[in-house]
């Protein structure tokens, strides 16, 4: 056991431990939170711009998971709209990025699947495994920074 500060005794430790257990039961830390924190801290190292969810309900936490068929990410240089669907029972992702000929990578863990947008900015991936995913968009201009999205659950 670690040494206690002078102003704390065993009763204080017991109360704090009971509070920790209560909070862990009532409001557990999401499984992916530590990974998201590590990812956010590593953005500076990879010099990427982070795209944000458009029209996100800021500061609201639902007691259950919410489901969406489409999400839109925006940054100062691009927009990426992602539509999640099914094709013959397989998970499919269709996306539109701000421009044609842009490489967009679907990242799931260590697995990366690149696709190049057509003239209308459309890219797609099928079949896709369920789980956390993010997208990395190559720079739109020479010398530009890549753009990466936060992770979403597929």
- Please tell me the total number of domains: 1
* DSSP E strands, number: 11
Mean pLDDT: 82
The largest pleated sheet is described as: 6 strands, mixed
User: Based on CA inertia axes, which overall geometry fits?
Assistant: elongated
Number of helices: 2
Cα-based radius of gyration, to the nearest Å: 20 Å
DSSP strand (E) fraction? Answer: 25-35%
Strand and helix order: HHEEEEEEEEEEE
Uncertain runs are 57-61
| Structural class by secondary-structure content | alpha+beta
Distance from first to last alpha carbon: 42 Å
Q: Portion of residues in helices?
A: 10-25%
Structure description:
The chain is built from two helices and eleven strands, in the order ααβββββββββββ. Strands 1, 6, 7, 9, 10 and 11 form a six-stranded mixed beta sheet that branches. Strands 2-3-4-5-8 form a five-stranded antiparallel beta sheet, with no helix packed on it. It has one domain (33-153). The chain has helices spanning 10-26, 33-46; strands spanning 49-50, 52-53, 70-74, 79-87, 90-97, 103-108, 111-116, 122-125, 132-137, 147-148, 152-153. With 154 residues, the protein is an alpha+beta fold. It is elongated, with a radius of gyration of 20 Å.
């Amino acid at each position: 056991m670690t040494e206690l500060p002078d102003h704390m005794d065993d009763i204080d430790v017991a109360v704090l431990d009971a509070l920790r257990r209560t909070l862990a039961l009532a409001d557990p830390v999401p499984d992916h939170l530590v990974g998201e924190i590590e990812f956010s801290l590593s953005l500076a190292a990879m010099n990427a711009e982070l795209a944000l969810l458009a029209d996100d309900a800021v500061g609201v936490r639902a007691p259950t998971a919410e489901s969406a068929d489409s999400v839109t990410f925006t940054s100062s240089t691009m927009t990426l709209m992602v539509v999640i669907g099914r094709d013959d029972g397989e998970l499919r992702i269709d996306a539109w990025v701000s421009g044609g000929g842009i490489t967009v990578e679907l990242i799931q863990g260590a697995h990366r699947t690149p696709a190049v947008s057509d003239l209308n900015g459309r890219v797609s991936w099928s079949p896709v495994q369920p789980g956390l995913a993010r997208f990395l968009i190559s720079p739109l201009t020479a010398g530009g920074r890549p753009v990466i999205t936060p992770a979403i659950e597929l």
